[in-house]
Amino acid sequence: MKNYWIFLLLGIFVSTTQAQQEMQKQNTPSMNHGQMDHAAHMAEMAKAQRQEQVAERGKDVMPFDLSATVHIFTKTNTGGIQRVVARKASDSKQAQLTRDHLKDIQSQFLKGDFSGPSHIHGAQMPGLSELQASKLGQIAIEYKDVKGGAELSYRTSDPKLVVALHKWFDAQVSDHGKDAMEGHHHSH
What we know:
- The chain contains five helices and five strands; from the N terminus they run αββαααββαβ.
- The protein is an alpha+beta fold.
């Protein structure tokens, strides 16, 4: 009779241990989910840190105040439109600085000089190597004054360069954070 109780207790103990193991197995996905949240959090922190570095390096290249202006990147079927405008329409100083800067980068880019974005965003910036490798004249870049700032229109007939411009736009939107946004897609 004594042995029976020992076996019974042993049986209960073993089945309890198995049940705990099963529960742990079932809980494992939620532990992974927690780790995923941590990874996502770390990625967000890294992105914020990168945006900070980009803003710092941007001061070397861009004469205007990033926080007082907004970059709008609109993809088109033939390239895209990069617009920089003062957040306040009355801020004529920032508007003029954006115009001066976009005229400067237009002349640099038309010469194949992409050192500005390379300095700000790094040489590994998506789309940048393809743009640097393009032949002069493959990308048409037009400057235009707009209310509160200016814009550059990039046009090419090379589908690979269109993709490169789109990647390059995406990288800028990501890197500039709250100081940049995507515009609505245009078909021209």
